[in-house]
Amino acid sequence: MPGLMTRLVSPAAAAFVLAVPIAATPASADPTGVPTPAVSAAATPLTVESAGEFTDTRVAELLEEYGAPGVAVTIVTADGPIATVAHGHADLAEGSPLDPAVHVFPTASVAKSFTAAAVLTLVEEGRLDLTEDVNTYLPEDVRLPGETITLHDLLTHTPGFAEMLERLGGDEGSELGEAVRTAVPEPLFAPGEYTAYSNYGLALAGYIVQEVSGVPFEEYARLHVFEPLGMEDTAFTQIPDARAERPLVTPHLVDGTPAEDLYIMDAPAGAAVTTVDDMGRFMTALLDEGRVDGEEALPAGVVEAMLGRQQEMHPAITGMGYGTYQWRAGDSPAFGHGGDLPGMHTGYAVVPELGAGVFVAVNGDDAAEGNPFLDLRMAVVTEFLETFAPQEPPAGAADPAADLSGFEGTYVTSRRPVSGPAKLVTLFDNVTVSDAGDGTLSVIGEFAADERWLPVSVDEGVFVAENGTDVLGFVERDGQVVAVAFDANPTNVYTRTGALGTPATHLLIAGAGLLVLLTVLIPVQRSGNGFTLATRVTLTATALAAFTGVGLLVYGIMDLHRAQIWLIERSPALTVPLTVAGVLALVSTVLVGVCLARGWLRPFSRVHLSLAALAGLAVTAIGLVYGLVISPI
């Protein structure tokens, strides 16, 4: 399950792990009139010599710049590899050099492409239908309730599932059937409504392969994907098992220490290992209609489906293939996938119009400190595209006469949990859009490429970052803007939320509540009977519990590794303090009410204690919104 963990572990989010959606050089295709960039004439011709220069020199420079332990890269055409290299170390402690001909790499979410290929081989045989209800293929105890979900939905990440961090762990040794029965995600959207990356969705697709074929998924992938492609060193297997049998690289955390092996519950979503050479064969097949070494390895229909734009949220923004996504759109689109685990980052991109592709594996977190939009893997893929198949972003210009008010609002990620403290992700992964007043939009968010965005087409809701590094498109339904999609990440969108549902509003309420609660901790001389004293003591306890909860949350944010563990395990450290505060706040409110009714409080205390009781309720209510309070329901 490859990578959101990295994505949300960016400067304060710390949550998922597996399958980080990443796309590269921004560009946009527009069947509706938005300008579409063409491949730049400044492209460096791709030859054996230029590819070798790129891998030997530029990749080495990027490794030095980013400071990762090691990087392996291969560039291929439809005829096979033309440049392969590794720089750095396979294991820092041992000082062993990284060797592309020897070392095996965990793929993380790149494995989703293998799973999609397995599904599509059965589609080509007529044994699976992409538009059929998946319940048709599932045993009764695995069938999904609610609206019809199809394999098309699963392969394009549009089944509408909420995110579940619990699925990032699991009991070692559990088989796939048990995994898909465990911690089934709740529906968040209607199927097909929004793209929202789902590891469970791909795991379920792999399980359907197993059920329909009658062969364990891992074995089916070996027989029908890896063996035909000649990928002899690629397999679906857990990292500890692979390490016992193969020369597996050591993933490293940002401080250079080895990352712990992660057991991947949703095996078809990310539990695979591969080599640089094997990934070269996989990309070659994608570039040559399923052929490798001149022989058909995959049906041409499989490749066509994987490299087709199967799902989009906006016609001018990157979309989804089956088991792939667009790194960029435009006249020269690139398809592929990225993957992330602690200390391991992979990615591949093929450009059919260029007739070439690149695969990158980095065995360590680097200077990006967990932000997949800024890491070494991303830099190599982006520079490959900009060097050999560059595209200019669409032209934008400020339009002071345009009415941009309809785009204003707060939007939260569609890849979000709906229960537990992992709901904190929306506190960090959101964007706020406002009219800058000069014919441009101001877009503020953790993953916004720039703050100032220029209109490309106001009618189509397309804007380009002033720095040219990303494009966004607003999604409209029934004449209303409901979401915003970014070119740099086609695997999720940001859905619009009302004023009371915005993280900024929640933070304001919680902050005000904490300030009021702080006043009850200030020791002052007070008089009154035993009941009023008990009221003050209860309010003080409420404040102490609330500040304890906030303090532990801040500690988690400062120590992202600890926060990751707490979120996945739903640690009591995140839920007990504010739950206690909530109970005490309710008791305090009752006690204050009695004091007011009996006239036991002086005028100042009436106001002060009433506000303190309300503040306790407000803080715990916000805690409930973000899963930090154990709900009695």
TrEMBL record:
One of its GO terms (molecular function) is hydrolase activity. Pfam families: Beta-lactamase. It comes from the Bacteria. Its EC number is 3.1.1.103. Keywords: Hydrolase, Membrane, Signal, Transmembrane, Transmembrane helix. SUPFAM superfamilies: beta-lactamase/transpeptidase-like (SSF56601). The chain crosses the membrane at residues 504-524, 536-558, 578-597, 609-630. Residues 56-378 form the Beta-lactamase-related domain. The keyword Transmembrane applies. Residues 1-29 form the signal peptide. This is Serine hydrolase domain-containing protein. It comes from Nocardiopsis lambiniae.
